[in-house]
Amino acid sequence: YYQGEYARAQRKFLELAAIPESDYALENKLWLAKTYLQLRSFDEGLKLIEEVKAEAQKEDEPELFSSASITKIGFYVYREEYTNAINECQSFLKNLDDDEMTALVWFQMGKIYLQQGDEENALKAFSSVLEYSPTFDVEFESRLQHALLLKDLKKLDESEEELNGLLE
Asked: Within 10 Å of residue 78's Cβ, how many Cβ atoms?
């Protein structure tokens, strides 16, 4: 898969899927879904991702659930289906209990809203990042985007205050 040989990867993941009750069956299913997406079998890939998400929640596998959700969001962004990407982000947020990941998802939602030209919702998303525990980079980028959006919305005093806060 990492070498870009998706047809070969698909065969290997299908071989692994034939092993009954493996500890890695769910992870294999996720990689098979990613491979289908790379091979442009979008319906099959999205169907498998939904199965992985459902099974990961049932089996309490938050890492696999997160990975499947992120893959689906990335697919929608790649296809420029921003409304679907936002819906998937919102669904993902309802099932997250990791503050750092929640902050990252809010940040990504802000960037998606910017792609759509929805500055008001982007502003809300970037400000929501600070309600959680973002990494330094995510917090800085979010605050910077927030300040730039305030400037674009003609809220110059608030923008200047935000930028001064970043300088400190």
From this structure: 10
Q: If we measure between CA atoms, which residue out of 128, 83, 82, 123 comes closest to residue 105?
A: 128
Catalogue the long-range contacts made by 121-125 (C-beta closer than 8 Å, 24 or more residues apart). 122/149, 123/149, 123/150, 123/153
Task: Evaluate whether 158 touches 150 at the Cβ level (below 8 Å).
Answer: yes
Predicted TM-score (pTM) of the model is 0.86
Mean of the per-residue pLDDT values for the chain? 93
Query: CA 79, CA 82: separation in Å to the nearest integer?
Result: 8
Amino acid identity at 125: A
* Residue 140: predicted pLDDT: 93
Which token pair is 13?
């993941």
- Contact between 67 and 30 (Cβ < 8 Å): yes
Q: Rounded CA gap, 129 and 122, in Å?
A: 11
What are the angstrom distances between the C-alpha of 73 and each of 27, 36, 80? 18, 15, 10
Residues contacting 18, CB < 8 A, separation 6+: none
